[in-house]
Amino acid sequence: MASIKKPRISLVFLSAAGASAALLLSACGGGTTTASSNTTSSEPSSSASPATTASSSPSTPGSSSGTPAPNPGPAPDNGLCKAGDVSLSLGQGDAGAGSSYRPLDIKNTSGKPCTIQGFPGISYVGGENGQQIGPPAFRAGEKGEAIKLNPGQSAAADIQFVNVQNFDPATCKPTPVKGLRVYLPQETASKFLADPGTGCAAAKLPGDQLSVKTVHRA
How do residues 97-123 score in pLDDT, each as one tens digit? Predict the structure, then answer.
């Protein structure tokens, strides 16, 4: 009776099966594997570059827009004659060539000296609200020297009043006036000086209905 031969298991097959089993156990088990030192990640780790928070510069004390500006205090007295320092009057004058010439007297009625220099601003006023009638006085000549007025002293400025009948009525538009509005040189407050008459209400005239010269000593 012939003997039965048992088949041989190839060593190569066993070797390959063992390797596969080892890999399977490694994948299913809880063990850790060590990455190769030659492996380079294509994306940097988020922990490698920590976020940087920019700090704001400290505020400068007193630089806040809400800080109130210091009070500059009252404006210094520049020594010029103000409207409240003087009284005004019109002196007697001369007439000729369709005009009259009268001095505007400016008297220091305050208790302190003051200085005046230049041309007063003068215009006719009328109506119920003292509105200006026609253009202001033309300034004739050059600006004079500064004049110091002690209490009680006066200066004067010569005014030329043109007779409005010299102008064509259609051009002049004759209008009753109650007097003059006067601004002292370099002063923003005015004074009223009563002197009823007639002026031209037209904004443009072929000449000057009023003209004034610089202040001089009375």
Answer: 799 999 999 999 999 999 999 999 999
Q: Is residue 143 part of a domain?
A: yes
Structure tokens at 130: 């003292």
Q: Is 132 helix (H, G, I), strand (E, B) or coil?
A: strand
Alpha-carbon distance 125 to 132, whole Å?
Answer: 4
Report yes or no on 45 lying in a domain.
Answer: no
Positions of E strands within 138-214:
138-139, 147-149, 154-162, 174-183, 190-200, 210-212
Structure pTM? 0.65
**CA 112 to the chain's CA centroid:** 35
The total domain count for the chain is 1
Report residue 54 as tokens. 């920019």
Q: Give the CATH number of the domain where residue 150 resides.
A: 2.60.40
217 three-class SS: strand
Q: Give CA–CA dist 64/68, Å, rounded.
A: 9
Going by C-alpha positions, the residue among 79, 104, 76 that lies closest to residue 92 is 104
